[in-house]
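Need tokens for this chain, all 263 residues.
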Amino acid sequence: MRQLRYEGWIHHLGRHAVACFLTRGGCYIDWERGAEVFEEWLIDHEAACNIGNWQWLACAAFYAQFYRCYSPVVFPQKWDKNGDFVRHFVPELKDYPAKYIYEPWKAPVVDQKKAGCFIRGDGTQHAEEGGVQVYPKPMFDFNERRTICIEAIKSAYRVNLYGNNPKVVDGTWRSLFSDSGEGPTEGNSMVDAAMSENKQRITTDVDTVDGDMGIDEDEGGAADRGGENRGGDAEGNKRKRGRGKEQVTLDGLFEKKKKKVKR
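Here are the structure tokens for all 263 residues:
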């Protein structure tokens, strides 16, 4: 984000990482807010591309591979082991050992002091403490919050409602989701509600979708090697890789996969 503000540009994989972090990765902030910031700061902003990609990465539209979510730790470790990018744009951490550059909060206090920067607080404290710089701790556990989101989206796929469904229109969709889930849900568990409301439970095998669903080679390779499934669901490891596949929408996914109906 500092690069974006200083230079008005970031690599497309960086944009993807930002989108995942802001939406599905843990902040749970609406994609429209991120799109607004990109519109304001990107020198190469183009409305359709910006809005479409934010919807895509937020899984609000187009993108069925909800289990793909870039990790801010594992992904960059694969491409910049020494953390030169971080050292340039986050100079507070420039003297940290490569071992801790992506997880500085894990460094022993003695190493933090030697690097000239303590990892403390939430960013509201003084910039220096006893002559040593201070950089905030993580806002949350990324892996934990990403997993919560992945499981919630899986439940939504299994409920399989569309925007024109009466339950969506009148708000009774809430009864199809578990009380334990985060967000404005209430009522019975998803499974019980689906059984009683629909007289049947439709399960769709989302785990074995073939192909990369339109992911280009650079992005697909980055995803594979970036470990974005770490700490989350394992769906991404169960798919067969393939090129030349069309982008799969939600409609296409459910039309092409064989549905198993338990009566």
